């Protein structure tokens, strides 16, 4: 046998051996999954592992399924992301490009859990130049997802994005449920972005409902803003309009319109709107209010507002003269720090002309009292002080009035919760 033929046979034997080893490797999905996840983790600066039984398909359109996935920063205790199942299908051209082309057909995530604090720590370390938006011609599907903050979470997240491409408008349908303290907020909204990524214009329309054990507030909302991704999720110049109803027990609902404006920030600690402009337009027992201040919602709710009550609502118990006859606005300062369902104590200072009220109360107890009108108690359930230069009560004229009201459930010395 000539030397040339021996070399040729050796090469053929080597190729056969390599092909056999490759076929054996491809016949075991855990090896394929580990290799792909390792490459993805290296590109993202993460350790990505999968302990479940994976699947892949190379015939036709390549597809990969990995199960029980965990992604974390190296040496981090808390995973950034976990998922029961991740599915992706990609064209052969993407595989041949070896990472230079980020084009895929479809991405699906089952029961993903995103830890917002861990995600923000990782995101802060990523150079902006490495933020690349992939193309997904058949979009993204998310089922039974969660976003977890320190004292709150958004659960039962189901989302569908028909397509995703750099520089192109993005539309999605999202359903989920916010849970924080004693407050639940189920939502079903449609969102659109002028393009994926920071700087995009954002529009959201749909239904949200604030719920506690005692009351509900279903709302039709419309939100516009500009997306910023630094230091958490930020919506700059956010403007929210809502057509809402307050419903408690078997009582008739109270409709009102609400407008909020300001920078909206979602972090692992809380959702904040600060500084905020507030406009409330109500009728009957619901007041008309314009105010400025701020909101923070996490395990607790914090509200700080200064503004004007346009007039005394007609359904509230009538004010004695001369307060009731005055057409002056009623400037107020309101402070609340307590349970997220607004069941805590509100501190309120309210003025009209030279008359000043300074007190504390539970909001929904006072609302129930105001709805009772003449059938209820003549004095509201609150603790506070009313000072007036002059009042007319039952035909008698009182001057230099200082009225102290006390509710045993709300001691005057108790700070706002």
Characterization of the model:
By secondary structure, this protein is α+β, with helices and mostly antiparallel strands. 16% of the residues lie in helices and 51% in strands. The protein has 5 helices and 24 strands. The strands form 2 sheets. It has a 22-stranded mixed β-sheet that branches. The protein has a two-stranded parallel sheet with strand order 5-8. The protein starts with a helix and ends in a 12-residue tail after the last strand. Mean pLDDT is 84; it is low at 21-27. It comes from Pseudoxanthomonas sacheonensis.
Broad shape: elongated
Q: What's the number of extended β-strand segments? A: 24
Q: What is the typical, i.e. mean, pLDDT?
A: 84
β-strand amount: over 45%
Portion of residues within helices = 10-25%
- One letter per element, helices H and strands E, the order comes to HHEEEEHEEEHEEEEEEEEEEEEEEEHEE
Task: Compute the CA-based radius of gyration.
Answer: 30 Å
Protein name: AsmA family protein
Describe, in short, the structure shown.
It comes from Pseudoxanthomonas sacheonensis. The protein has 417 residues and is α+β, with helices and mostly antiparallel strands.
């Amino acid at each position: 046998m000539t030397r040339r033929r021996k070399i040729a046979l050796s090469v053929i034997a080597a190729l056969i051996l390599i092909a056999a080893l490759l076929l054996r490797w491809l016949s075991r999905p855990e090896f394929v999954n580990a290799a792909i996840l390792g490459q993805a983790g290296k590109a993202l600066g993460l350790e990505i592992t999968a302990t479940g039984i994976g699947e892949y398909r190379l015939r036709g359109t390549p597809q990969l399924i990995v199960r029980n996935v965990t992604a974390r920063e190296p040496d981090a205790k808390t995973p950034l992301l976990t998922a029961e199942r991740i599915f992706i299908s990609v064209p052969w051209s993407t595989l041949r490009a070896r990472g230079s082309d980020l084009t895929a057909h479809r991405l699906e995530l089952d029961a993903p859990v995103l830890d917002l604090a861990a995600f923000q720590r990782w995101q802060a370390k990523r150079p902006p130049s490495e933020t690349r938006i992939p193309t997904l011609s058949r979009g993204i599907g998310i089922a039974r997802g969660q976003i977890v903050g320190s004292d709150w979470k958004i659960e039962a997240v189901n989302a569908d994005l028909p397509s995703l491409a750099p520089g192109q408008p993005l539309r999605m349908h999202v359903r989920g449920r916010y849970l924080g303290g004693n407050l639940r907020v189920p939502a079903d909204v449609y969102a659109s972005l002028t393009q994926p990524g920071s700087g995009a214009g954002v529009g959201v329309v749909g239904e949200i409902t604030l719920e506690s054990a005692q009351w509900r507030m279903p709302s039709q909302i419309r939100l516009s803003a500009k997306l910023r991704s630094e230091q958490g999720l930020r919506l700059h110049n956010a403007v929210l309009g809502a057509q809402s109803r307050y419903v408690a027990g078997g009582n008739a609902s109270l409709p009102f319109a609400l407008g909020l404006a300001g920078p909206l920030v979602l972090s692992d600690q809380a959702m904040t709107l600060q500084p905020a402009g507030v406009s409330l337009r109500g009728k009957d027992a619901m007041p008309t209010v314009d105010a400025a201040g701020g909101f923070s919602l996490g395990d607790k709710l914090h509200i700080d507002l200064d503004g004007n009550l346009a007039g005394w609502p007609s359904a509230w118990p009538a004010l004695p003269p001369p307060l009731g006859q005055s057409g002056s606005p009623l400037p107020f300062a309101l402070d609340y720090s307590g349970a997220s369902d607004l069941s805590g104590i509100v501190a309120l200072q309210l003025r009209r002309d030279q008359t000043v009220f300074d007190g504390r109360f539970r909001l929904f107890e006072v609302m129930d009292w105001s709805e009772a009108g003449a059938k209820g108690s003549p004095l509201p359930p609150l603790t506070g002080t009313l000072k007036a230069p002059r009042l007319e009560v039952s035909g008698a004229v009182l001057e230099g009035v200082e009225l102290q009201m006390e509710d045993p459930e709300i001691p005057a010395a108790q700070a706002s919760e």
